[in-house]
Amino acid sequence: MNLSWRRIRAVVIRHYHVLWRSPHRWFDVLVWPIVDTLLFGSLGVFVARQTGAGRAGVSYLLAGILLFHVIYQSQISVSVGFMEETWSRNLLNLMVTPLREVEYVAGVALFGLAKLVLGIGVVALAAWGFYSFAVSDVGWGLIPIAAELLLVGWVISLFVIGLVLRFGQSAEVLAWGLMFMAMPLSGVFYPPSALPAFLRPISYALPSTHAFTAAHRLLDGRAMPWHEITLAAIGCVIFALLALAFLLRMLRVFRQRGFVTRFA
Questions:
Q1: Which residues contact residue 58 at a Cβ distance below 8 angstroms, ignoring those fewer than 6 apart?
Q2: How far apart are CA 113 and CA 77, in angstroms?
Q3: What are residue 134's phi and psi, to 5 degrees?
């Protein structure tokens, strides 16, 4: 497939200007990460004081919210990037240009990486400044874990875009709903065994669960659990293929039934 870097760069620049000229859009990038860090960090400190459990619980919560923001920032950047086209009634304009679907997604995802770096940086700085929690203490093992969670966020965004194409703007709530449904099921702050028994099979089927389990093992000072990393990678590939097939199907229906008139 012959992709045009020029068109991908144009998408990046388009979303850069949208973010730069709309100060309220910085909330997800700068404000929300600090709020999450304060909320879960303070909760961890309170529980540690009440139970005498030490800083282990604080580290679990702070590392959990840091890694969850990898999913959050990657997913919300792509999903909201697409919804920006529907809000501004720009979707039809994009469809009559030479821009390919994969180029558009690549451009939005690339711009989302920049927002991801900013958001994660804010969480890391807040955790270090408020609670003396340094991400570097966990080690380089967080890199493959973060990479898998990044892919999980992108996979969720593909499902969201497909649902918006099929059902219109009423499905936009799922941009946040699906992600926060995955949060408790993935065991962000606790092992999957803490979930009710009937939810555990769903939890173990999610690649994010194995990524967070690997992070918990590292926080406990154990060796890198490569079997969990492998399970997470396999799950990411399977869900990515399903999400791509779903999106292509919804795009086909979107064109055949003329659903573009919903956004014109």
A1: 41, 44, 45, 48, 131, 133
A2: 8
A3: -105, 125
> Distance between CA atoms of 155 and 237, rounded to whole angstroms?
9
Helix axes 174-185, 142-167, angle to 10 degrees: 140
Q: For residue 197, what are its two tokens?
A: 């028994």
Q: What is the chain's alpha carbon radius of gyration, rounded to the nearest angstrom?
A: 19
| pTM of the predicted model as reported, rounded to 2 decimal places | 0.89
φ, ψ of residue 232 in degrees (nearest 5): -65, -40
Backbone angles phi, psi at 26, to 5 degrees: -75, -5
Nearest to 101 by CA among 241, 239, 3: 3
**And the tokens for 70?**
């990898």
> What tokens does 172 get?
């936009």
Q: Report which of 183, 237, 241, 179 is spatially closest to residue 212, judged by C-alpha positions.
A: 183
Rounded-to-integer distance, Cα 106 and Cα 99, Å = 11
In angstroms, the CA 100 to CA 103 distance is 5
Taking the C-alpha atoms of residue 111 and residue 78, their distance in angstroms, rounded to an integer, is 9
Q: What is the pLDDT of residues 183-228, one digit of tens each?
A: 889 988 888 999 999 999 999 999 999 999 999 888 888 888 899 9
* pLDDT tens-digit readout, 216-254: 888 888 888 899 999 999 999 999 999 999 999 998 998
